[in-house]
Structure formats: C-alpha cells, structure tokens
Amino acid sequence: MAKTKLTLLIISFFTTFSVVCLSSPADFFLYGGCTQQRYTSNSPYESNLNSLLTSLVNSATYSSYNNLTVVGSSQSDAVYGLYQCRGDLAMPDCAACVSRAVSRAGQLCPATCGGAVQLDGCFIKYDNVTFLGVEDKTVVLKRCGPSVGFGPVGSGERDAVMGGLAGSGGYFRVGGSGDVKGVAQCCGDLSFAECQDCVGDAIRRLRSECAAADYGDVFLGKCYARFSTNGAHAYNYNKAHAGKSGNEGEKTFAIIVGLLAGVAILIIFLAFLRRICEGHGK
Ligand SMILES: *[C@@H]1O[C@H](CO)[C@@H](O)[C@H](O)[C@H]1NC(C)=O
Ligand SMILES: *[C@@H]1O[C@H](CO)[C@@H](O)[C@H](O)[C@H]1NC(C)=O
C-alpha cells in the first residue's frame, strides 16, 4: 500500500519534472494543419494511418528523413507520409521530436485524412493523396520579430548570413556572422535543385518581409529559412512566446500535473502522520 503510494509519488514527481524542466526547444510547436476530409473510425484507413505514424517514429531513430507509403489491401485506403528532422538534431532527439509531432497531430487533427505539424526540430506530414517528391512553396508560416531598425552594420551582417544560406548547398544549412544566426532546411524528398529553389524563395521573402526585424521565420510547404539576432528566438520562446499558441496546452498540463502531484504529496504526508500517531496510540 505504502509502496504503491510512494511509486505514484515518484511517478508524478518525475512527470512534473520532465514536463516543466526537460521539454526541449526542439519540441516547440510552430504550426499545424489538417485536411477537411475525415476517415471513419475502425476503418482500414485508420489502421493504415496508425501503422504509418508508428513507422515514422521508428524510422526517426536511425534516419533524419524518410517517406513511407502504407497501402494495405486496397489502394483506396493508401496513406502517404514523411518526416524531416532538423539536420543538427541527434538521432534520439529526432525520434523524440517526431513522436511529439505525431501526438500533436493526433490532438490537432482527430480523424482527418491528412495533417501536418512543424515543431522547432522536426516536421511531419501525412495524407491519403501523395505529395511525396512534389515541391511546395506555399507560405505556411511567416513571422517577423519586432523591428529593431537595423543600422547599416546589422543589416549588412544579416544580408551576409542570408546570402551564405542561399549560396551553400545541402538540405540543412546554418550560417552566422556577428550576432546574426541563420538556418535553412529542406524536406528530404526534394531534389537538390528544388531545394535550392525553395530555400532561395524563403530567403527572398525573409529579406523583403522581415527587413528590419530582429528575427524572421519563413516556412514554405517543403522548406524553411530563419534568422535571429542576439538569440532573438530564444528570447521569444522563453519569454514572449511562452503562453502563446502552441505552448498554452502544455503549460496548463504541466500546472495541472504539478497541482496533482502537490495534492498527492499532501495526502501521503497526512496518511504518514496518521500512521505515526496511531502507532504511538497503541
Ligand atoms: C481521400 O479521402 C477522402 C475522404 O475519405 C476521399 O474523398 C478522397 O477521394 C480520398 N482521396 C484519395 C486519393 O483516395
Ligand atoms: C521514398 O523512400 C524511398 C525508400 O526509402 C526512396 O527510394 C524514394 O526515393 C523516396 N521518395 C521520395 C520522394 O523521397
């Protein structure tokens, strides 16, 4: 009895701890979207989708990109999916991120045929229509930080970083100069030329639309480019961004778990006291 309570206490403590303290920046929610069509529960499509999502998470333990197709017994129940981790994410972190994105998609898109979720460290997308290997430059998220009215030096640094990102090849690109850091990532299903074209487009938008901002994010359908000055994103996430959009639910959850753990501790403590008192009474 006491052992069970102790176990519960330990579990709730570590749950609180892990939600509050260990939530990695890679898990920050950036955007998500769902298709209109829904599948019926217990349908072959649902079971194909579940097996696809499980396979995506498994695959993310050894590869930073993969695409999958699950057809099952009938072509009409086929589901297509992919994930892409940010190129600098280590393998266990990639799998953890994809797993997080999959559960996010489940909350966001219950029973819809298709969905997509972008966290800071990874992207997942699935649908019943194939989109694999198709370039997609639709603007999905564009966000510019507060204007800092760059002097000529600051804006020159940013342009140099953006130019470096645009010029370097590869699916994952990082650059930095002075206080400015930049990162770009393509989805692994694009060809080299498509990646170049997509990132070029994202950077053009960043330059023109976030010209005087201290950070900028442009996420297109299959690639993104971001820059930040003086760690502007870190500030944004830790302070201004906390409590907004994606983190709201997790924060509330953490608070509830924390409260429950507090109540559990109190109950166990009271029970413990009572036992000591009873023991003395006998
Ligand atoms: C995708 O699913 C929707 C709804 O179930 C259906 O109307 C549509 O025809 C499907 N598309 C394909 C390519 O199977
Ligand atoms: C999907 O994955 C398969 C094998 O993993 C690969 O051969 C194929 O090129 C990939 N397709 C795309 C569009 O990335």
Automatic annotation (TrEMBL):
Signal peptide: 1-23
Gene3D superfamilies for the chain: Gnk2 domain, C-X8-C-X2-C motif
Subcellular location: Cell junction, Plasmodesma; Cell membrane
An example Gene Ontology CC term for this record: plasma membrane
Family from the record: Belongs to the cysteine-rich repeat secretory protein family. Plasmodesmata-located proteins (PDLD) subfamily.
UniProt KW Transmembrane keyword: yes
Residue stretches spanning the membrane: 253-273
Keyword Hydrolase on entry: no
Name of the protein in question: Gnk2-homologous domain-containing protein
Keywords carried by this UniProt record: Cell junction, Cell membrane, Disulfide bond, Host-virus interaction, Membrane, Repeat, Signal, Transmembrane, Transmembrane helix, Transport
Highest classification ranks of the organism: Eukaryota, Viridiplantae, Streptophyta, Embryophyta, Tracheophyta
Highest taxon above the source species: Eukaryota
Lipid bilayer topology: Single-pass type I membrane protein
Residues annotated as domain Gnk2-homologous: 27-131, 132-232
